[in-house]
Amino acid sequence: MLKLNDRQLKRSTSSGFSLIELLIVVAIILIIAAIAIPNLIRARIAANQASAVESCRTVTSAEVLYNVAYDNGFAPTLNALGGPVAGPASAANAQLIDEGLSSGEKSGYLFTYAATNADSTGAFQNYTLNADPLDPMTGVNHYYTDEPAVINMNTSAKASATDPPIQ
Fold this sequence. Notes:
The protein has one domain (20-154). Helix content is 41%, strand content 18%. By secondary structure, it is α+β, with helices and mostly antiparallel strands.
């Protein structure tokens, strides 16, 4: 018959972690997650908002280039500023902004573009661009810009030219 000495018996009964030790580790992980997740969400919202502001700047710059290149006022649609990369650039497919932005949705923001005040030749003399978050988890600020290239911000509703400019 096989006989175990005290040392072998002690090793076999104390191997592994106890339930209490495992619960302590899980509790520590949950505390760290409770601290880190809200910070991660705030960082993501800040990144989306910064992307929306930069996209407004990009559209403003693209409008100036469009006006100079096609001598046709401002673009009739946001898609006309971008469009697919296939083929040469034209007034209907200027390829000045990326396809994501020209589709009207980027980084959790919805971009609403409107060209206004067409002259006798059909060239648009004004435009407006609104950037609104798709939901509160993607951003909280609403942005607005038009041909003077000032980006205005509103924290509670759709932004307009009467809202204060961003700093």
